[in-house]
Amino acid sequence: MPSDKPSKADRIAAANLMEEASEVFDNCISCGMCKSLCPVFKILKEERVSPRGKGIVLSDKVMDKILFECTMCKACEEKCPLNIKVCEAVMKGREAMVLKGRGLKSNEEMIENVRKCGNPFGDKDVKDPEKLYCC
Amino acid sequence: MKLNKNLIKIYESDASRLKGNAKEVVHPRNVAEVRGAVANSARVVVRGAGTGLAGGAVPQNGMDVVLDMSKMDGIHGFDKERNTVEVEAGVILDELQGYLARFGLEFPVNPSSHAVATIGGMIATDAVGSRAIKYGKTSNWVKWVEIVDGYGEVHKKGITELSDYSGMEGITGVIVRACLKLAPRKDRSATLVKVESLEDVVSVVRELKRNSAVSMIEFFDKGISKELELGEGYHLIVEYESPRDDPAGPDGAGALTGKEYEDLIKLRDRVYPFVAGEGYTRIEDPKIMIDRFVKLMTWLEARKIPVFGHVGVGILHPCFNHDQEKLVPEMMALVKRLGGQVSGEHGIGVLKKGFVEINDQKILRNVKKRTDPLNKFNVGKVV
């Protein structure tokens, strides 16, 4: 579902969120320990999806869809010797992307489906369309 | 998948925090893909976990293709009779240890980055770690390596040619597979020893080294001990080993076992990140004889440089903050005057290139010319 052009207020809010997300990594020493428990890295085995990778992207205030490749489990934060709140930063990055109309298409479709049909699959043949259900 | 410029940047630095420039990133899944990538690239930089502290995996000139070996994580060919296992280069040490635990075996070299360090990276840097006093370097535990040369050809290199690849920081070829020797798992305990003076550290270390059950002697200076809430004075973490379930236990076994032991060892793994978090981000790794320890430490203490390290094997980790970094060459000169080595375990990479002795440079250049005639691998590093 294509997003509307973001308003000026949304653009400012997105810029502020990216600034805040970037500041979260000011103390990062790039030791890479965050990778050790990251379930996304464990499966994909690519540095780009590691918490350290997301930190580099967010430090540069770059909006990239890798920010959506995170389970928000905070395992990286458990391992981080400097207690960097990676997930908080990733969430801010996602918010900024959505405000700028750069959220994931699949997420927007899912939200649209929930609004229209009460379920994320767009299934109209449900017994009680007022009731929200999921998998 | 071709990465965009913003994502390539992720591969342009490592734990040294040096910044470089890469042309492209490849994540090979098997040897054939490594061969293809190498054959089709003019310059190649191999990357393991990216935990190097000397910039060995940082691409330099915008021409380098980074090979991230993380996807090559297969563990094959376990030989229970010979106590060996064949692994791909991207296998993470802790994951290998988890696999081996069921057989009562382990890979005994233990760098503090064991949770993420890859076997390929450990061989390429000849990683040392905290148990070097008993088990030595990674290369002591490698039977053979399989490498890809600049033409994309695969070769198996046994013990006689291993030194062309182990500790060469990826300047001679791509390590794709290795056969590792394994040791029986041990029961471990530890003791925290408080020491009042530097001279006492030397005598305690000498005494401990006579005990064959001691597998680790880690040193923390006064400042770090205080910050870690260990108390006043210098501290040593001493680890002891005994065969599993040995009811007698080793002589002088450590007081801390089980969770208390694990907590103490975790504390040791956290020291560098902790010190770096305080602003002391440049970590060095000089290696000296224990009888020169006091001289080097006195110099470092006078300049308020925090120090910890594997004192059992003479490797110290002085940590410099931004203002103190200008003192690094002076310290290296002192280390050389004391008959030590400028790098005990982190490697030369980019950061320590200027400190390599001329004779060593000649030897390294000869090895590089012989093994990498196309001058393709990790150009600009080590020599």
Output the number of helix runs of chain B: 11
Mean pLDDT of chain B: 94
Q: What's the number of extended β-strand segments of chain B?
A: 16
Strand content of chain B: 15-25%
**CATH homologous superfamily classification of the largest domain in chain A:** Alpha-helical ferredoxin
What do the pLDDT scores of chain A average to?
A: 90
Instruction: Classify the oligomer.
Output: heterodimer
Enumerate the spans of chain B where pLDDT stays under 50 for 5 or more consecutive residues: none
Poorly predicted runs of chain A: none
What is the rounded Rg of chain B? 21 Å
Layout of helices and strands:
The complex is a heterodimer of chains A (135) and B (383).
Chain A: H1 8-24, H2 39-44, H3 51-59, H4 75-79, H5 86-99, H6 105-117
Chain B: H1 5-8, E1 22-26, H2 31-39, E2 44-47, E3 64-68, E4 75-79, E5 84-88, H3 93-101, E6 105-106, H4 119-125, H5 132-135, E7 142-148, E8 154-157, E9 174-181, E10 183-184, E11 186-195, H6 198-209, E12 214-220, H7 222-227, E13 234-243, H8 258-277, E14 282-283, H9 293-302, E15 307-310, E16 315-320, H10 328-337, H11 358-371
Parallel strand pairs in B: 1-3, 2-3
Antiparallel strand pairs in B: 4-5, 5-9, 6-10, 7-8, 7-9, 11-13, 12-13, 12-15, 14-16, 15-16
